[in-house]
Amino acid sequence: MSNRAQPEITPDTPLRLADAAKIAFPLGGMTVAGLRRERDRKRLVVEKIAGKEFTTLAHIERMRELCREEARGPDFNSKQPVEARAERSLTKRPGSSETTAGMSAQAALQIRLRPRRKN
Predict the structure, then answer these.
(1) What is the pLDDT of residues 90-118, one digit of tens each?
(2) Which of 2, 43, 45, 61 is most buried, judged by most C-beta within 10 A?
């Protein structure tokens, strides 16, 4: 057996996914399966050589940047800040319908002037 020195790992050294996960996330939290999910989402560059998947620490850093950018995107949930709800409630009349927003003024007026149905 030869006594080889440990090779230096640079940002561009190809690493198997298991090794890359251990080095890039030394405290855990990322697994090979997680890296594969990021690969499938097109956020992690992976090279497949002889049936084995490799990535680099530079590619993992780029993946992390992409994940941070995505996290900063707009929040599309149904909850609104209190200020927006309060402002909207001051401008809307109770019982008015939002379906008239995309209509012409004349069509909206005709809907308002229709007699109300009794339930």
Answers:
(1) 555 555 555 555 678 888 777 878 877 77
(2) 43
